[in-house]
Amino acid sequence: xxxxxxxxxxxxxxxxxxxxxxxxxxxxxxxxxxxxxxxxxxxxxxxxxxxxxxxxxxxxxxxxxxxxxxxxxxxxxxxxxxxxxxxxxxxxxxxxxxxxxxxxxxxxxxxxxxxxxxxxxxxxxxxxxxxxxxxxxxxxxxxxxxxxxxxxxxxxxxxxxxxxxxxxxxxxxxxxxxxxxxxxxxxxxxxxxxxxxxxxxxxxxxxxxxxxxxxxxxxxxxxxxxxxxxxxxxxxxxxxxxxxxxxxxxxxxxxxxxxxxxxxxxxxxxxxxxxxxxxxxxxxxxxxxxxxxxxxxxxxxxxxxxxxxxxxxxxxxxxxxxxxxxxxxxxxxxxxxxxxxxxxxxxxxxxxxxxxxxxxxxxxxxxxxxxxxxxxxxxxxxxxxxxxxxxxxxxxxxxxxxxxxxxxxxxxxxxxxxxxxxxxxxxxxxxxxxxxxxxxxxxxxxxxxxxxxxxxxxx
Length: 459
What we know:
Shape: flat
Oligomer: single chain
Distance between the termini: 50 Å
């Protein structure tokens, strides 16, 4: 709301400058009010602030507006305004050029200066208000530390010495096995109470600070915490295979590794989600004739529904229903969960064709629209197989940082898995994707996927 109001004021003042500087009266407007009240300017006064909110959203500023540093707030605002100024000039002002370069440069600079000044002023005021609330402890960021040893107390004192106690209120510690426990009167609870404590105390953040690092311990705890949606961080001096190459951020200057956030900027997250929604809408619209024909053929060639749903595990280890065209017999899993293969007798003749060209995956664009999935991301699995994978590869749990996808680097490089060993092998590609997650990586994967579909290289 502050951005909308400030941008509206900035653009209104710019239009006053525009009238006087460019001699708008020569285009039939005898007074400033006639110009400002014209239908064209009235529409621009509404549409421009709304469009700029979209650009500001894409920048990622609104994702976590109150935990940014001053430098990050300023730099994000600066880049957003530069892009906004260029777009406004090219779309709305290009016909207002006077032929004098100096006047055109002045127009651009005044537009940029007004947008930057007013936008940042509004954000600065809100940030100052937020800081005052934090200093008065009106807002308390409840923090739970996992570990009850010297290591955990060291992290606690580092937070305290950094002057962050007015922001982060450490409510206590979680005791872990294989630790030399400290009994100093500070609140502590057993690991079996973890979820209950998070719920009762409204924990906003968890810091993992065990005496010794064990990958199995990290993944066991993460698998329990992912569904709660609570950020989990770990000190960089407790590195392990699991924590390597994970997103680094800081708590008021203290660096911590974020175990629940992938290495991708907020800007790219928003671009990725926007692309998912636009592409899914387009795909479901353009492919609607194919969807209808495919559903009819499925019903005519084998008994059972055209589309079936199955519970899979997605981001945050939360279950969701995935939708696909049915490519197997209706009783394919009457004996329990099974993986498929190229010679699977459960697959119907039409199902083999659908799998070959990935037609059976089309209904998953609906999952993408709902937000359960992304177009590119690790393939979602069932809990039955996840438990078996994590026994052999505890790091597999890191894929729950991101939304699962219709296609993935694992599917492109490895294909469908026929057993648990192959699922473990394919998961390494999914982790490689998370560590190198970006828009350019998604584009590469989609290009390879298109080639797979055209060549009929699916299973």
